[in-house]
Amino acid sequence: MNETLEVTETLGELQHELDRIVAIERKKREDENEADRCYEQELTPVLHRVRDYLNQLIKLLNDKRLQQSEKTRHLCMPEVKYHLAQIGASAFGSIRGRQIDYHIITSNKAGRLADFSLYYQCTTENPVAIQHVEFRHPNDCTHRINLQERLKEYSLKYECVERPCEDGSVKMLFTLQPVVKVKFEFVGNPDGKSFRLTITNAGGMGNNGVLGRVHFPCITMQQVGVEAIEALIQYIVRQPSKLHRYWEAEKNFQQTEVSEVAPLNSMNHYDTPLQQTYDFDGVKAVDILARIQKQNPPIRPDATPPAEKLTKAQESLQESIEEYSRRVEQEHHKYMAELEKIRLTLEKGHSENLTLFSWATALLFSKRKEGKL
Question: What is the pTM of this model?
Fold first, then answer.
């Protein structure tokens, strides 16, 4: 009898545990279904709106006419310089170039088709690979592995070739491609009510680029207004942006060593999100870009670069020296001509004096001769 009761109690406990597990699975499926519904019905239109504006933007940024125009080149192809010392690779110096090749790739993941990523890269028109040579002990690969991991972490393309040396050490030849790949990744969160944005290698301000990532973990539909879209576009074209005042960035998310030039500043307790408007009718990316261009006109360089200025200064100085030399030569000739006149005058006077003296001597001699007679 007791054994029967124990078995019954055990079965009851198992049934209770089974019911609990089934309830948890049912709740999980319900939550997933609700998340999918929210993603499809509420979040997808927001992601489509952001993607639509960025599609409009990259058509403008990739336009050759705008890239070549002095008025818009600084927006379409901003110049950026990345110092590799910030990732512990100072031996490679820096990578400098312009932003080019903007394109968008959409997600093919089932149930998350509105996710997408914006890509572009920073490079020069005629990139030249950066080479660096180091030597290591044959049994110590620590430094090489550490450097390789850093380069991979920041999506920098490189090659490393090793050759043994006569002294037993190993020569490492690193060849780094001078290209920085940038990515803006928009992904819906599991709850379907918000999305996250991860920006890779687009940090810094103006021409000073910063490698690394900045992460906005939770951007709600209410945070995507006209002003946030404009701030996002400003950030992409490397103009002053208040994106962190509309979307809160996660702190300490893979920042680089150079903390004073971190990609974005997170909101702190002194900051409050800025107010936004949600009337997108008639608002186009071209209008936003035109407004940014008006607010941030290109910095016009001087008429001639410093090197040319130096050449012109040198030419001007040379002309002044030549003119001075000509004047000195003219004055010299004039002075010599005057001296010649004086010499001739003196010679003439001397000749006349000699003649007079000869006459006087002859006269005296004749007088003396007559007296003797």
Answer: 0.72
